[in-house]
Amino acid sequence: MTTTETAPNAPQVAGSAIPQEELERLTTDIVAALKTVFDPEIPADIYELGLIYRVDIADDRHVTIDMTLTAPGCPVAGEMPGWVENAVATVAGVQGVTVNMVFDPPWDQSRMSDEARVALDMW
Fold first, then answer.
1. Mean pLDDT (whole number) for 10-34
2. 71 close to 121: Cβ distance less than 8 angstroms
3. Planar angle of CA 7, 91, 116, nearest 5 degrees
4. What count of other Cβ atoms lies within 10 Å of the Cβ of residue 12?
5. What's the pTM?
6. pLDDT greater than 50 at residue 65
7. Closest C-alpha among 70, 65, 62, 71 to residue 53
8. For residue 84, what pLDDT is reported?
9. How much is the CA Rg of the chain, to the nearest whole Å?
10. Spatial separation of the C-alpha atoms in residues 61 and 63, rounded to whole Å
11. Residue bearing the bigger pLDDT, 13 or 57
12. Distance (Å, rounded) from C-alpha 44 to C-alpha 37?
């Protein structure tokens, strides 16, 4: 089946055929890859900003990601899904990546991690 992660919360496993150890490694490596992608206008990565809404790892190791932007009119809206796809595709064991841009629910600052709040001085 799949593993689902709603950043920045812990993964929720739903009956995956992937061995637990491999699933944990894939999840950790995918999160690390997501943390290499930055919104060029904000000095924090997209994972800590809470722009990643869902990560599913299918039994065939195809990864589907639902993500959003801080604003629908973001100047890199057309490019960022490609950056995410390229970053996650480098993870060993990932067989393919699909990135879906979603705007429901709309992003707001409450989705940011404490790490992002510190980086942006938003306490």
1. 84
2. no
3. 30
4. 10
5. 0.84
6. yes
7. 65
8. 98
9. 14
10. 6
11. 57
12. 9
CB 93 within 8 A of CB 61: yes
**Domain spans in the chain, listed from the N-terminal domain onward:** 2-119
Strands 62-67, 52-57: parallel, antiparallel or unpaired by DSSP? antiparallel
Mean model confidence pLDDT for the chain: 87
Contact indicator for 53, 7 with CB cutoff of 8 Å: yes
* Residues in Cβ contact with 92 at an 8 Å cutoff, skipping those fewer than 6 apart: 29
Instruction: Identify the helix (H) or strand (E) that includes residue 4.
Output: strand 2-5
Rounded CA-CA distance 28/15 in Å is 18
- Which helix (H) or strand (E) element contains residue 20? helix 20-34
pLDDT tens-digit readout, 78-120 = 899 999 999 999 999 999 999 999 999 999 999 999 989 888 8
- What is the CATH number assigned to the segment(s) 2-119? 3.30.300.130
Residue 21 identity (one-letter amino acid): E
